[in-house]
Design brief:
The structure is a homodimer of 412-residue chains. Chain A is of the alpha/beta class and 412 residues long. The first copy, chain A, has helices spanning 13-23, 28-32, 65-68, 86-95, 105-121, 138-146, 160-172, 176-185, 194-197, 200-214, 233-241, 303-318, 353-366, 388-398, and strands spanning 5-9, 38-43, 60-61, 75-78, 99-102, 126-127, 151-157, 224-225, 244-255, 258-269, 281-288, 292-299, 333-334, 342-349, 370-375, 378-386, 405-411. Chain A is built from 14 helices and 17 strands. In chain A, helix 1 crosses helix 12 and helix 4 runs parallel beside helix 5. At the A-B interface, helix 6, strand 12 and helix 12 of A face helix 6, strand 12 and helix 12 of B. Strand 12 of chain A pairs antiparallel with strand 12 (292-299) of chain B, so a sheet runs across the interface.
């Protein structure tokens, strides 16, 4: 009997989850198929570390070439995280004609064209469902849609950590710092939360989805991003009173030959499909020209959902389905932030009447129609529809006047 | 050049949509693939009827055998609707070794095991993504999930007509009859809306999804169903005041070796993912033992979304992907309604104090803890958690007392 052999690079949270689904009788496919694939080698940094009882320690190795140069291994599962050395390993695996399944959004976002063309040249598949949205089958759904539709809009909540923090702030009226601490205690945020709360994680995911959606490589570094660290309890309260929920939204769209991308906090109208996705859940909304809007949501992080996506890709390869098709030749260009028009919400912490007047005058200069509210030391504005460039000008000028500012676009 | 040939059975709304995607340069695949498949014959009842300019009338025929017995046709697309003669045609097509793609929920729901085994015997595929949820890729998503997960719960809003009616009633505080009229004027409801408003359409879809999810044929006629015709404006108002939205919910779940199914109106907590799906949109929530909850939503009806699902299945066949796998040998049995426990909402139209007292006494007999409200001739109850069998007993006894009753389970 011929059995497909898998080499695992990394045995962290996701790697252990993949091992469990395949070996510890958790995944249906591997319980029922007599010739189901087997994990034959696992790359770790320390073979002596205690990793529990439900693991075959004889599979562990610290030498990547035990996997990358083993001609009996068919599929390499790369779940180490970070940039190097995983990128180098993945390229070596592809060039040695091994299929690769990865959950690593960084190497996919930074090198999608190179990795997909390397896979194609070697007649193997590169799959990365787990790199975006945890267990949500978004890459596959998008690939299917694109066979018939042109996609012109990708909108989502793509980061479980920040969605958990904002849900906490909303439910318990807590400060950002307190909500972050809870997230860290519950394992939803890392000790250094920078990549999550400043949008680097989200923009990588948006880069992957947008590049596939629009057939054009959209680099992570070209995506406008603003973090959520300046959101105060007062913002949660004021937006709620006006019928909105604060969410960390990734959005890109096509307009003519330009694309627009942004990762930024936004006020979402309550009781809409973006507003009700809470805690570690993610949601992605795609707009196709024939099918209309399709929304997919589920757990965006966590061992089992992410491992489920990895193992789903392995099965996809086993069933010899068509690999991810990517054509990045669409001649579109970055339109910057100009087309992100909308009503805007501003909050300024003003310490005295001079600050109050200066801020008020600045907003007045750029925005004709707006509602202004002063409450407990904060000056709030809800503006008429303006361009994001105007909002950025206001931010730029008012930061010279007061330190504590938050602003966000309103998405109805 | 070898080109795949398609025969189309039916040229109604969905059939015309399929024709447009393939021929009128609407679908990307058919614009870009030189050897894309072609529709070579279309079965209609009247070849002389005016069907617009963008159609090749020479393809029309009134003889099904022009398609079913044509050995050059590879794929039959069955989009006539109803039971016979479409079932007979589909069986003949499969037995003549043609792949079949259909949007017909009735023949799939009534004959899934027979049709899938006939396809298997003839080494062809039977696909029916368009039979449930319009454009929503739910059958495919479920098939992927089932390779790794066991599914234990399927919950959804599966009918665009009734969701549109309930959304209208909610937005405009209109009566059921007025909302139905608007739905009919806008083309969202048929002249005879019975199949939609009494749950026959929904229960067929729930039968298809549940049979696949639980590996056991769950017959449409064994699904408990209750219509939405007795919902009054007073119900919309009272449930809204208590933080709920009225939705028409299809739900099935597994518990031990029993399955439970119901199609019934329900009170959904506002700002949850079922509550915010409005108008013609549908949503399906699947719960997998590894991946957790996955939700997919989109347009549940309409020409383009449904045709998109049909054409998606055609492409799936062209790419030689694995056909729908179905094993219906799971030895589970119908548990009836017993496990549908929950808080219940009741409304009774009472005309006089004698009716009031009789209804009150009846509810009192079965439910210890409840809130009672009397308002403008209606007596309302919100009960503690009770079994659905108790709710049905109350309904049964009170219908002897008053005519105008509505009740529904509360889903938090």
């Amino acid at each position: 009997m011929f059995v497909i052999k898998i080499g695992l690079l990394g045995l962290g949270t996701v790697g252990k989850g993949v091992y469990n689904i395949i070996n510890n009788e958790k995944g249906y496919y591997f319980q029922t198929e007599a010739d189901a694939p087997q994990i034959v080698k696992i790359l770790v940094t320390d073979t002596n570390k205690d990793r529990g009882n439900d693991l075959d320690y004889s599979l562990l190795t610290t030498d990547p070439d035990d996997i990358l140069l083993d001609n009996t291994i068919d599929i390499v599962v790369a779940v180490m995280g970070g940039g190097e050395p995983e990128l180098k390993y993945v390229l070596r695996a592809l060039n040695n004609k091994k299929h690769v399944v990865t959950a690593n959004k960084q190497i996919i976002s930074d090198n999608m064209a190179l990795l997909l063309s390397t896979a194609k040249e070697n007649n193997v598949s590169l799959m990365f469902e787990a790199s975006v949205g945890g267990g949500i089958p978004i890459i596959d759904t998008m690939q299917q849609l694109l066979k018939i539709n042109r996609i012109n809009n990708v909108t989502g909540i793509l980061n479980g950590t920040t969605n958990f923090i904002l849900s906490q702030m909303s439910q318990h009226r807590s400060s950002f710092d307190d909500a972050l601490k809870v997230a860290q205690q519950m394992g939803f945020a890392e000790a250094d939360p920078t990549a999550d709360v400043m949008g680097f994680d989200v923009s990588r995911k948006l880069s992957i989805l947008s590049s596939l959606a629009y057939n054009h490589i959209i680099k992570d570094e070209n995506i406008y991003k603003r973090g959520i660290t300046s959101i105060a309890a007062a913002d949660i309260e004021m937006t709620r009173m006006n019928g909105y929920v604060l969410k960390y939204v990734a959005q890109s769209f096509l307009k003519g030959d330009k694309y627009y991308t942004a990762v930024a906090p936004a006020l979402i109208k309550e009781s809409t499909e973006l507003a009700v996705v809470n805690n570690e859940y993610n949601v992605i909304i795609l707009n196709g020209n024939i099918i209309g809007e399709i929304k997919v949501s589920g757990k965006g992080a966590g061992q089992n959902p992410t491992a489920n996506a990895v193992v789903g890709d392995i099965i996809y390869i086993l069933e010899k389905k068509s690999p991810i098709e990517a054509d990045f030749s669409n001649p579109i260009r970055n339109g910057g932030m100009d087309e992100f028009r909308g009503k805007y919400y501003f909050r300024f912490r003003v310490e005295n009447s001079a600050q109050f007047s200066s801020v008020f005058d600045c907003v007045d200069k750029y925005v004709e129609k707006k509602d202004a509210i002063y409450q407990k030391g904060n000056l709030f504005f809800f503006t008429e529809e303006i361009a994001s460039s105007v909002a950025l000008k206001i931010e730029n000028e008012t930061t010279k006047i007061c330190e504590n500012i938050f602003f966000a676009r309103v998405i109805e």
